[in-house]
Design goal:
Layout (H helix, E strand, L loop, with lengths): L5 H16 L3 E10 L2 E9 L6 H16 L9 E6 L6 E2 L2 H6 L4 E5 L5 E9 L3 E6 L2 E6 L6 E3 L13 H8 L1
Parallel strand pairs: 2-3
Antiparallel strand pairs: 1-2, 4-9, 5-6, 5-9, 6-7, 7-8
């Protein structure tokens, strides 16, 4: 069970609507001590991901909210706003929905992880393509998944690699 400090909960209550107003979702928030300052890490994501412009927008809006009189965040702080990254755990159906088309590794029913491509995340469970065949897994059997790094996705050329081989001939 995760315990939440009153400061963290107050900050989450302050920033959640700010991030939502920018069109994103507050995925995680942490507050830690960094000398005489607080280090505030805000992780955000969106249905189509988030780019650097989105991160900058959320950072400006979050800073403004934290600096306001109503923000009630006392003392100096360093604010870091980022996306969850490719190594984020896939734990909730919304995480799996964002991973449609991606290659993942996931344990099913506490067994060794399987690797497959996410075809869909429905109300009743997860659909994966494993070894060319489609499989469905009910949510209670799906463990914490991880996206696998792919240098090129199926059907997409590898940037410059195919052309370089052709030029050498």
């Amino acid at each position: 069970m995760t315990t939440r400090s009153p400061q963290r909960q107050q900050l989450q209550d302050l920033l959640d609507p700010v991030v939502s107003a920018a069109g994103y979702e507050l995925v995680d928030l942490s507050v830690s001590s960094a000398g005489r300052r607080s280090l505030v890490r805000v992780t955000v994501d969106g249905a189509a991901g988030i780019d650097l412009d989105g991160v900058a927008e959320v950072s400006r809006a979050s800073s403004t909210a934290m600096d306001s009189e109503d923000g009630a965040f006392a003392g100096p702080y360093v604010l870091e706003v980022s996306s969850p990254g490719v190594d984020r755990p896939l734990t909730e159906p919304r995480h799996w929905q964002r991973a449609v088309g991606r290659l993942v590794s996931v344990p099913i029913s506490d067994a060794e992880p399987i690797t497959g491509r996410v075809l869909g995340a429905e109300q009743d469970g997860l659909r994966l393509q494993v070894d060319g065949a489609e499989h469905s897994y009910p949510w209670p059997t799906v463990g914490t998944g991880r996206m696998q790094v792919e240098f090129s996705r199926p059907g997409q050329p590898q940037d410059g690699l195919d052309n370089a081989a052709d030029e050498e001939e």
